[in-house]
Amino acid sequence: MTVFRGLVTIFAGAGLAAAVAMPAAADLVCKRADMSRFEPEARRNTTVCATSSLSVQKNYNFGPDQAVDSNPKTAWVEGARGPGLGNWIMLRFDQAKPVRYLGFENGFGKQIDSERWEQLARVKDALIETSDGLLEKVRLRDTDQPQFVDLGREVQPTWIRLTLLSVYPGTKWQDTALTEFWAMPGGFRPVSRDIVQRGAKPVETEPVSSP
Questions:
Q1: Angle at Cα 154 formed by Cα 48 and Cα 211, nearest 5°?
Q2: What span, in angstroms and rounded, lies between the C-alpha atoms of 88 and 50?
Q3: Per-residue pLDDT reduced to its tens digit, 88-122
């Protein structure tokens, strides 16, 4: 594993197979996404899907769209048994778009409720896949602050998928939460202290099938 300055570690290993098979379309939870914080037109051309999400509780919605609403009070929470390893969240674009950075706010809204943030699990290791063949493992830091993955090159995907591989355990619940997941347009540049330079080679695996 190679460690870089910043908030995220990127690492890769040979022979890594796809983390989870694509479920039937009927099993997916999909919502139109509002990415207009970064691109005004993205409000109309992005869909977010997930393999599962926690059911609505006390008027709280935990669907995948809650991870792309630019709201620190909301989050996607997977709905599988345990921490949801192998579950994924995906951004689908109506047409290919340039992406260089991925942004994350881990866990469940620590800015709002620090106790709840610790009680729910947070993403640790994840697999990043894109429709145009990029396949990387990433390690997120256990922090509520924004953190960015530099893909090392600009890709032109029609979808980007993040699959849960391991988590930072919650103190009370096993469910894993992700407050925000962003795909940054080509011209976006995060604040330098939040960027991690890419240093991993693509994982050797079979070609990624289209969702």
A1: 35
A2: 6
A3: 999 999 889 898 889 899 999 765 667 788 999 99
83: phi then psi, degrees, rounded to nearest 5? -80, 0
CATH architecture assigned to 26-196: Sandwich (2.60)
Q: pLDDT tens across 25-67, in order? A: 446 788 877 666 656 555 557 899 999 988 887 777 899 999 9
pLDDT digits (tens, 9 = 90+) for 108-159: 976 566 778 899 999 999 999 999 999 988 889 898 888 888 888 889 999 9
Beta bridge partners, 184, equal: 101
Cα 62 to Cα 52: distance, rounded to the nearest angstrom: 10
Residue pair 134/207 in contact by the 8 Å Cβ criterion: no
For 28, the 3-state DSSP assignment is coil
CB 24 within 8 A of CB 211: no
